Amino acid sequence: MSRLDARRPRIGISASFFHPDPERAVFKGKTLLYLDEAVSHWVASGGAVTYLIPTAPGTGPEVDDWVADLDGLVLPGGSDVCPRTYGEEPLRPEWAGDEIRDRYELDLLNRFHEAGKPVLGVCRGAQVINVAFGGTLYQDIPTQVAGALEHRDWHRYDRNEHEVQVVEGSALARLYPGVSTARTNSVHHQAVKDLGNGLTVEARAVADGIVEAVRLEDADDRYVFGVQWHPEWVGDREHLLSPRPILAEFLDRAREVASR
């Protein structure tokens, strides 16, 4: 067994939040953290052990303790990013997002990045990456991008699909040799507007140019990559872009961390 195979990479996955609700029948008034099991199963399918990362309790373990124990971070999909997180006010109350989750995930991203550990963002996670590096978002694609595709359909949900253009010469293009356009699922109404510092675009929606993948160009070769689609929901739909190369690249970087 080689050194890189000595142990499985340990991957932390950030949590989604149910904030205190006095009307909720179960765990009334309590903060709940949860995870879509598809994310954990997808990451584990590559040979990793996955962990849901809780918020720090204020006494005892701190965020850096989780960062020290883990080899990489996945930022999954979920609620909107709050516009105040990138210096805007919500254009509508329903687009106010989850500012508490924003702060929690930005802190995790920054600490994993500073530690030289890879970060992979999915949907909301790609948007969090953009905001972390100084970018902004479209709060609502249909009302802010003329002629935009329908990037989210509540009834079709993860069965909503469209074509993406892979940027020639990008790292994503190298993961998919010979693929210039591909079909992906699409479940989002926010998207990258102003690109964050140091980020490059690696895929766009064919029909309207919406950013679909971003990667950090880091002088220290630290891995930060995000896709707007949901690789964990592809399943047996072989006509969609395979989720395997993206996961393999991320976990290879996590294995390098684990070997150290």
Which class of secondary structure composition applies to the elements?
Answer: alpha/beta
- The Cα radius of gyration reads 18 Å
Strand content: 15-25%
User: Strand-and-helix sequence, N→C?
Assistant: EEEHEHEHEHEHEHEEEEEH
By DSSP, the count of extended strands is 13
Average pLDDT figure: 95
Largest beta sheet, briefly? 9 strands, mixed
Q: Please mark out the parts with pLDDT under 50 across 5 or more consecutive residues, or reply none.
A: none
Distance between the termini: 16 Å
List the helices and strands and how they pair.
Elements: E1 10-14, E2 16-18, E3 32-34, H1 37-44, E4 49-53, H2 63-69, E5 72-75, H3 99-114, E6 119-122, H4 124-132, E7 137-138, H5 141-144, E8 161-166, H6 171-175, E9 181-185, E10 191-192, E11 199-205, E12 211-216, E13 224-227, H7 244-259
Parallel strand pairs: 1-4, 1-5, 5-6, 6-13
Antiparallel strand pairs: 2-3, 7-10, 8-9, 8-11, 11-12, 12-13
A few lines on this structure:
The protein has helices spanning 37-44, 63-69, 99-114, 124-132, 141-144, 171-175, 244-259, and strands at 10-14, 16-18, 32-34, 49-53, 72-75, 119-122, 137-138, 161-166, 181-185, 191-192, 199-205, 211-216, 224-227.
What does this 3D model show about the protein?
The protein is of the alpha/beta class and 260 residues long. The chain is 25% helix and 22% strand. The chain has seven helices and 13 strands. The strands form three sheets. The chain has a nine-stranded mixed beta sheet with strand order 4-1-5-6-13-12-11-8-9, with helices on both faces. A hairpin with a 5-residue loop joins strand 11 (199-205) and strand 12 (211-216). The two termini are 16 Å apart. The mean pLDDT is 95.
